[in-house]
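testing teh design pipeline on a random one, pls ignore if ur not involved
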């Protein structure tokens, strides 16, 4: 039987555990030190900390954890302070020579505590933090390149979003303010933050990935921003040059498939139980969309195309966000009225009409109402009908603005997705 080196009411350490944890700690120090030493060599700049230093500091943190249980808390605190002081002195020396970066010093202190965590047996946490540290340290050049490409407008819009999220949104009243008790300013603010945040993510992805990364990826990323905009842009492009119709069809179908993903995300966020009712239908439509998209993608894979930039607008369109909020409240009131006074048929008709303009607002609205007594089966039908009407609108745009070849592609592609939606309505 393995003997215990330490055995208290709250902590036990056997000889085998001690060896395993020590080896993990040494491995953590070695791999972080290897990255730092390699970076210093590559940049041809001296570094005070390499493999030996990081192995030593992780070992110090490991032994500090041991002394905590053997000699007491104050000894461990003294060891921590000595590590901080030595690291601070090192930074002062390097900063006085013009190198004011502190990544190595901070990673050294983190490594110290990783040694302590390893001693305590939190190996999974230690290894996870190690991976994060390595990713951050090794991404220095890429981060500098990416930050250098950020425009002032993008930076200011990001700051505006943070200000709205942290300083305005928390103070919105969390109670209904209308006679029908459906408009809650706090919930409306939450919806605006979520949708504008998704648009911001789509903008960033389009900036990073969308241009020159392939028509398929452009379609999927563009679908995060607006599948209708993607349909309009690529339909007109196919009309100008019919030889590009196959490529344009792939982008349009990819964006419409991403629309189905957005419907699922909004539904899950606002009512996970409703999403469970929608899973069979959503999965069927999603698989159909992916299948038809990749079918046409494989047909044009060996051809080249100069991608059409999708107009993204501003990174954070505050006016558009407010318009969306007003649209959401209007749809919320109309759908609530239709459900209360016109019954199930009125709800489904209003959902179909709402789907003509925006699929996100009606998905969120129905998801919210299903939490307040609306039957899940009826809510699922309303969302699928809205998705169906939105798909018909985009099909109409493609047939009107697209080339003859694109029309055939969209009739087959959207036809398959519409059939899947009808089947989904039948099984929901």
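output:
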């Amino acid at each position: 039987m393995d003997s215990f080196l330490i055995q208290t009411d709250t902590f036990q350490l056997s000889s085998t555990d001690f060896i395993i944890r020590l080896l993990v700690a040494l491995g953590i120090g070695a791999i972080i030190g290897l990255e730092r030493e390699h970076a210093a060599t590559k940049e041809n700049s001296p570094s005070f900390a390499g493999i030996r230093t990081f192995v030593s500091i992780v070992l110090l943190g490991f032994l500090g954890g041991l002394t905590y249980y053997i000699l007491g808390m104050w000894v461990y605190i003294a060891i921590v302070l000595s590590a901080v002081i030595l690291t601070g002195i090192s930074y002062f020396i390097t900063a006085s020579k013009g190198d004011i970066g502190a990544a190595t010093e901070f990673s050294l202190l983190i490594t110290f505590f990783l040694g302590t965590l390893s001693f305590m047996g939190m190996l999974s946490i230690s290894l996870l933090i190690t991976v994060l540290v390595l990713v951050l340290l090794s991404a220095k050049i890429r981060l500098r390149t990416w930050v250098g490409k950020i425009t002032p407008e993008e930076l200011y819009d990001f700051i505006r979003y943070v200000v709205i999220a942290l300083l305005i949104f928390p103070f919105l009243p969390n109670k209904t303010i209308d006679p029908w008790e459906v408009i809650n300013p706090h919930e409306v603010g939450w919806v605006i933050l979520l949708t504008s945040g998704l648009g911001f993510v789509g903008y960033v992805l389009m900036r990073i990935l969308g241009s020159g990364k392939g028509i398929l990826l452009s379609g999927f990323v563009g679908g995060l921003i607006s599948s209708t905009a993607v349909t309009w842009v690529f339909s007109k492009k196919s009309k100008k040059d019919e030889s590009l119709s196959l490529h344009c069809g792939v982008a349009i179908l990819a964006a419409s498939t991403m629309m189905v993903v957005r419907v699922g995300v909004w539904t899950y966020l606002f009512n996970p139980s409703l999403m469970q009712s929608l899973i069979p239908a959503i999965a069927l439509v999603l698989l159909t969309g992916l299948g038809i998209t990749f079918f046409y993608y494989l047909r044009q894979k060996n051809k080249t195309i100069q991608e059409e930039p999708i107009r993204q607008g501003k990174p954070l369109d505050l006016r558009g966000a407010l318009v969306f909020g007003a649209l959401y409240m209007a749809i919320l009131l109309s759908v609530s009225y239709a459900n209360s006074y016109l019954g199930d048929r009125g709800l489904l008709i209003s959902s179909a009409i709402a789907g003509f303009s925006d699929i996100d607002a009606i998905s969120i609205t129905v998801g919210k109402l299903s939490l307040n007594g609306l039957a899940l089966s009826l809510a699922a039908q309303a969302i699928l009908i809205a998705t169906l009407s939105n798909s018909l609108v985009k099909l109409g745009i493609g047939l009107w603005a697209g080339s003859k070849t694109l029309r055939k592609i969209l009739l087959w592609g959207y036809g398959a997705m519409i059939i899947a939606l009808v089947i989904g309505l039948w099984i929901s």
